[in-house]
Amino acid sequence: MNRSISRLYWVLAGGFVLLTLGLGYWQVIHARALNNRAGNPQTTQRTLLIARGAIVAADGTPLAVSPGTNQNGQVVYQRTYPQGTLAPQTIGYANVTQGMTGLEQSQNSSLTGDYGAESLLVRLGLRAKRGAAVHTTLVPAAQAVANKMLSGQRGAVVALDPRTGAVLVMASAPNFDLGQVANHFSSILRVHGGPLINRAVQKGYPPGSTFKVVTATAALESGLYTPQSMFDDTGTVMASGLPLHNFANEKFGPNSLTLALTRSINTTFAKIGLALKAQRLGAMMTAFGVGRAPSVDLPPGMVVPSGRIGKGNSILANNQPGEDTARIAIGQEQLLVTPLQNAMVAAGIANQGAIMTPYLVQSVVDSHGSVVFTHHPTTYSQATSPAIAAQVTAMMRDVVQEGTGTAAALAGIDVAGKTGTAETSSGGLSDAWFIGFAPSQAPTVAVAVVIENSSSQGGVVAAPIARAVMQSIISRSQ
What we know:
Blueprint: H1 2-29, H2 31-36, H3 41-47, E1 55-56, E2 62-64, E3 68-71, E4 74-77, H4 88-91, E5 94-95, E6 99-100, H5 102-106, H6 108-111, H7 116-123, E7 133-136, H8 140-150, E8 155-160, E9 167-173, H9 181-189, H10 199-202, H11 212-222, E10 230-233, E11 236-239, E12 242-245, E13 253-256, H12 257-263, H13 266-287, E14 307-308, H14 325-328, E15 335-336, H15 339-350, E16 354-356, E17 361-365, E18 371-374, E19 379-382, H16 386-402, E20 416-423, E21 430-438, E22 445-454, H17 458-461, H18 463-477
Parallel strand pairs: 1-7
Antiparallel strand pairs: 1-2, 3-4, 5-6, 7-17, 8-9, 8-22, 10-13, 11-12, 14-15, 16-19, 17-18, 20-21, 21-22
């Protein structure tokens, strides 16, 4: 009998220990992850009793605020979005039913006052719980221009300050109104084209000829070529047993590397890809960040990596022997990049070869006006040397002055850029691109524009959008 009681005791004791460990894990160790999980209605409901911090634009324009109202003797804070259509996919929403997305999710700890010593002061009753304000890098005027130019189309625009990595514009179309999330979410879901998708960071596109900027940089880095290196175009190159042609089957004859970028000659860049092989071309892709997802202050998993896509959407290595480097060199062959990644390519050339880490949050300021966080620019990667970046800049300037990108030209300001018209599986339609920066001598803005399923070329539909966005940003700084 005593032995049976002893066994029962140890079973009960063991169960109690396991229960205690389980509760400790979920309530202590894993508590923060549960509280910050998107879609947790209890967490979001609790925030209605908290003066959630504002999200503001670079010029102080309020993007998300929480005015208080008295309900049954209790102050309740309702999240509202004064500029609801400005950058909805990036700002995101915090809603009892729909959960949290975008900056509302990634910055939730700051916005709800659950950070650092603030949490301890609240627990000790020394301070009422109030959220901190998140100051973003977004420029409302330029963001509005991008939204207007994208209207009625599917695509995205990203503009960066190449000197710091600050995201000045992050626009995605189709768009929606954050003010409709609380009561009309089903109508947003019915909009054709997926307005909740942030195409700037969540969708990859074949870059087409914009990728020739990476290939040209690799060519110059290799020492095998200079901007004046000559090629002879017959209109066709055999690669992986199949012919590769120029756009519209054009033939250019003798051409330099500079002219090849200016006129976007596929065969010349295909020959360069074959000569560089996977090791050299792949190394340059890695240097530009292709193959990984940059951190940009958005929720984990929201920013997808760029790269060559394999089975199950896996990212393939950049330097696999035997790959079709001719087609990779012209931005095709399973290669997908996000608009953010392509903007970083342009920004890297603009910034003397150094790509700065992109970011959306400039600072966090608590309810008493004290700055609790300030972003300090960091280098994401050194893609190339200043000397080679200068050579590529000169070549990209020719693209805008006399090549395929003339629609991006600005009066009195030198613009450097590259167009792209990438083949897709959509019945003869293409993804139309433009990447570039301005002023080319001392760049303050780098931009990437993509328009999905277009019947026109990048120089026709994407370049004018880039021009308008760059003009808006440059005008602001003058």
